[in-house]
Amino acid sequence: MAKNHHQVYLLFFLTAAAVAATVSAAAANLTAYEMLERYKFPRGILPQGVQRYVLRPDGSFEVFFSGSGCEFRVGGRYLLRYERRIAGTARAGSIRGLQGVSVKVLFVWLGINEVDRAGDQLNFHVGPLAASFPLRKFAVSPRCRCGFDCATAGDAAVAAS
């Protein structure tokens, strides 16, 4: 009878290992944008141009862009900068300890250290201050230099010619 228990434990262990390997393999094939969606964030909080990313089992991550990073305007009011490497820790609906993302307020660059989702709103924290934006504004990833307005700027240029 003890032999049967050992076989059951072995079978359970092998099944669990196979499931874990499948989940890891599936996660390894996902893009950084798809991983954001798994954490309940829209892909548009990350600009286009991710070269690679590392996601560890504890939720800590690093995302790498080519060149010197990415900069663009949001709503004509804020200038955002993503360094070549950004990092933090992701949980469902929250990113903490964010490094490498900053916003220019007046003449000063301030680091965005946290992002969380509250229903249909995204809250971006800069120290004790926060700004909220509708989730729908981040449905698509912005492009470096022109942000979310790339298509609009291109359409205006075509219409003007």
Automatic annotation (TrEMBL):
Q: One Pfam family name from the record?
A: DUF538
Tagged with keyword Signal: yes
Asked whether the UniProt record includes Signal among its keywords, one would answer yes
**Annotated keywords:** Signal
Q: Which domain of life is it from?
A: Eukaryota
InterPro entries membership: At5g01610-like (IPR036758), DUF538 (IPR007493)
Secretion signal span: 1-20
PANTHER family for the chain: EXPRESSED PROTEIN (PTHR31676:SF155), T31J12.3 PROTEIN-RELATED (PTHR31676)
Q: What is this protein called?
A: Uncharacterized protein
